[in-house]
């Protein structure tokens, strides 16, 4: 997963948390939450883009379906950013990732089939799921209960969204 937040220097990361007194495990939790927010932001952008560009005989049903998916992703992203603030960090989800997605694919969208769009979203969800599972396994005893609850709820939601997307593949 490309992650603009993790590519930032420590000074840049500190500037994002200026005024914050978080250290150690909380700082690590903020970093992973921002990493997940970054991935979810990319997924939200792709879902919205595909919602606009889906075509063919399944247009209406997929247009409505993807509307529900991107609205759910927006809620999840907002909740994650709020959790970062509750912990004392600075929420961060860069627009640069969406820019890199759109710059390389502006004209490709017309060439993507509906199944290719859905498969791409499934891959993005799998990335978020794997990142979340890895973090939970590695930091089982270090995560505060509120953050663990948020991550498990997001994990379940991404698994459900993946299952629903897969059901649209022929």
Structure keywords:
170 residues; Ferritin; 7 helices; single chain; mainly alpha; 75% helix
Lay out the secondary structure.
Layout: H1 4-7, H2 10-16, H3 24-53, H4 59-87, H5 96-105, H6 114-138, H7 145-166
Helix pairs in contact: 3-4, 3-6, 4-7, 6-7
The CATH first-level class comes to Mainly Alpha
Distance between the termini: 27 Å
Sheet bearing the most strands, described? none
Q: How large, in whole angstroms, is the Cα Rg?
A: 17 Å
CATH domain fold name: Ferritin
* Order of H and E elements: HHHHHHH
- What's the name of the CATH homologous superfamily? Ferritin, core subunit, four-helix bundle
| Number of helical segments with 4 or more residues | 7
- Strand proportion, as a percent range, falls in under 5%
- So, CATH architecture? Up-down Bundle
Helical proportion, percent range: over 70%
**pLDDT averaged residue by residue:** 82
Unreliable runs, pLDDT <50, ≥5 residues? Answer: 1-19
The strand count comes to: 0
Shape: elongated
Content-based structural category: mainly alpha
Number of domains: 1
């Amino acid at each position: 997963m490309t992650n603009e937040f993790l590519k930032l220097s420590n000074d840049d990361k500190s500037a994002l948390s200026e005024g914050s007194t978080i250290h150690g495990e909380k700082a690590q939790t903020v970093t992973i939450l921002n990493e997940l927010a970054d991935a979810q932001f990319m997924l939200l952008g792709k879902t919205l883009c595909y919602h606009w560009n889906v075509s063919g005989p399944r247009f209406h049903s997929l247009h409505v379906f993807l509307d529900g998916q991107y609205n759910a992703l927006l809620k999840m992203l907002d909740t994650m950013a709020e959790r970062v603030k509750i912990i004392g960090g600075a929420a961060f989800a860069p627009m640069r990732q969406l820019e890199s997605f759109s710059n390389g694919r502006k004209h490709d969208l017309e060439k993507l089939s509906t199944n290719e769009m859905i498969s791409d979203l499934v891959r993005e969800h799998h990335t978020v799921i794997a990142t979340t599972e890895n973090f939970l396994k590695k930091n089982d005893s270090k995560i505060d209960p509120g953050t663990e609850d948020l991550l498990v709820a997001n994990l379940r939601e991404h698994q459900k969204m993946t299952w629903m997307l897969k059901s649209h593949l022929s």
